[in-house]
Amino acid sequence: MLFRPVNLILLIFCSALWCGACSKDPTQPPPDPSAAGSLAPPDGECLFILGQADETQMRAYLNEVRNEPLPAGFAFYTSLSNGAVQGDLPRYKSFCDDYPNTTLQLAIWTGERQWGDPGYYLDEILSGRYDANISALASACRTFGKPIYIRFGYEFDGWHNAYPPDKYIAAYRYFVDRMRQAGVKNVAYVWHSWGVGAYYGSSDFPAFYPPLPQGQEVNQALWYPGDDYVDWVGLSVFGSGWGDLQGNQVIQWLISFAENHGKPVMLAESAPIKTSGQSDPDWVIPNTDWLRNVYSLCAANDAVKAFTYINVDWEGSNPSSTWGDTRIQAAPSAVRNFWLQQVSGLRHGGAALYEAIGYQP
Question: Which domains does the chain have, with CATH numbers?
Answer without folding.
Answer: 35-357 (3.20.20.80)
